Amino acid sequence: MPLILLTGYPTSGKSSLAQRLSSALLALAPNASIHILSSHPQHPRTIYASSTPEKAARAAQYATIQRLLTPSTVLISDDLNYIKGFRYQLYCEARAQRTPSCVVHVGTSVAQSRANNQSCGAYDAEVFEALVARYEEPHGNKRWDSPLFTVLWADEDVQAREIWAAISGAGQVRPTQATVLGQAPAREAGALNYVSEATQAVVKSIGAYVADHPGEVGGEVVVSAAAEGEGEGEALVLVLPQGGTPSLAQLQRLRRQFINLNRTHVVERERVGPAFVEFLGGVFAAGEGG
């Protein structure tokens, strides 16, 4: 069943909406299994004061969502989900598992959220303002933010009927090329090894470009996706993010994610490189790569 991503400013009322939405969905579908996932019990809000613990918490959140996404449960992610690149990654994960997803934007104003925080003291004032400044609002014209529902602070209607129609009536979700490369069980000998080698070739091409262009951001990289011993391979163009050059560690993390998404499928060799470059391009365009 689907993934529902809540997003909004800190102390905008996401946890309250998660409970209200869960109750409203159960009223519409009494036999539904609904699970609310919040990272707050496991990770204190002080993690947002430093990038290292925040990234670790986000990785843990991603892993938990991967584990809990099942055909029989509606999963509501009650978290900030404020980085569009992270929402893109979760969109890809839902597509890979052939389950619908949607984004619910808690449209509380900054002023109201700030007043809520001053009242409950959930975040240090400096951390709160930093999170507001970094918040990347969802847009319904982006595929990873669609379908998008906005519930305002004063709204009594949580749009449960519309959300349920969107997540229960979408039919079978078809994975995109950038998520799952094939649909048959992985019986082809060495298929996963080839995916590993071809994606490593892409990472090496990007690394070579970055080394030759120190201090530059953005730009177009012509990469090779040929596995070792296969010559030049197809020339593929990847647009690097304007927000900052991706590090080798970031590239390897995205490479591992791509490999894991395709671990149980037969891979047509000629599709590996283009699919991985498309995957990276989508993440970079969403703002997660730099």
Task: Tell me what you see in this structure.
The protein is of the alpha/beta class and 290 residues long. The chain is built from nine helices and seven strands, in the order βαβαβαβααβααββαα. Helix 2 (51-68) links the parallel strand 2 and strand 3. Helix 2 (51-68) packs parallel to helix 3, helix 4 packs antiparallel against helix 5 and helix 7 (191-212) packs antiparallel against helix 8 (248-261). The longest helix has 22 residues, at 191-212. The chain is globular and about 55 Å long.
Low-confidence stretches: 183-189
Q: Percent of residues in helical segments?
A: 40-55%
Structural class category: alpha/beta
Beta-strand residue percentage: 5-15%
Distance between the termini: 32 Å
List the secondary-structure elements in sequence, H or E: EHEHEHEHHEHHEEHH
What is the residue-mean pLDDT, rounded to a whole number? 83
Please count the helical segments: 9
Indicate the overall shape: globular
